[in-house]
Amino acid sequence: MLCWHLLIYLLLGGTAFAVDLVPEYAEAREGSDAELPCSLQRADSLDKVSMVVWHKGNEETALYKYDMKGTSGQHWADPSVGDRYFLRLLDGERALLTISFTKLSDEAIYHCRVDFNRSPTRYTHVNLTVVGEWNSLISSGCFIVTIKDFVPEGTEQTLWLTSLATDKS
């Protein structure tokens, strides 16, 4: 639904940065922290951020909000995520949403919406991949595979598999 809002906004004459449509990529190991970037870059250098809102997938309900309208920022997270989500402002142009103790169910495309006082709304889309333990990913009645160490993409490794057969009759 969020993408439709952007499309309608653009069709009605709104302006958006071209980079808004290019997704960012983030990766985390299951159980570790994931960091999702969000651009706070504004059209008017004197403008200020008023609100940062994060959505997961096509859900219309926000997972996380950071309201900067008052004298100090107010953090809010959906009760379903508890205190696992937290936004950090790195500088005037970047922020990171940290997801602690990532789960396989956290894997999705996230959308960061930044509202400004005067500048057009800005969107950042982040594709989060969560790499899980193989024993939770590949298991059946025939075999279970366990890989202890995380292997980054592009790294050449040799994988030795040993099978243990049992008679279930």
The total count of helices amounts to 2
Can you tell me the overall shape?
globular
> Mind telling me the CATH class?
Mainly Beta
Counting structural domains, the number is 1
Number of strands: 9
Distance between the termini: 51 Å
Fraction of residues in H or I helices = under 10%
Portion of residues in beta strands equals 25-35%
CATH topology: Immunoglobulin-like
Signal peptide: 1-18
Domain Ig-like: 17-129
InterPro entries: Ig-like_dom, Ig-like_dom_sf, Ig-like_fold, Ig_sub, Ig_V-set
Keywords: Signal
Can you put this structure into words, describing what you see?
- It is a single chain.
- The protein has helices at 2-11, 134-137; strands at residues 24-29, 34-39, 49-56, 64-67, 74-77, 85-89, 94-99, 108-116, 122-131.
- The chain is globular, with a radius of gyration of 20 Å.
- Residues 1-19 and 139-146 have low confidence and may be disordered.
- It has a single domain (2-131), classed as Immunoglobulins (Immunoglobulin-like, Sandwich), CATH 2.60.40.
- It is built from two helices and nine strands, in the order αβββββββββα.
- The strands form two sheets. The protein has a six-stranded mixed β-sheet with strand order 1-9-8-3-4-5, with no helix packed on it. Strands 2-7-6 form a three-stranded antiparallel β-sheet, with no helix packed on it.
- The longest helix is centred in the first third of the chain and has 10 residues, at 2-11.
- It is mainly beta.
Short description:
This protein has about 170 residues and is mainly beta. It has two helices and nine strands, in the order αβββββββββα. It starts with a helix and ends in a 32-residue tail after the last helix.
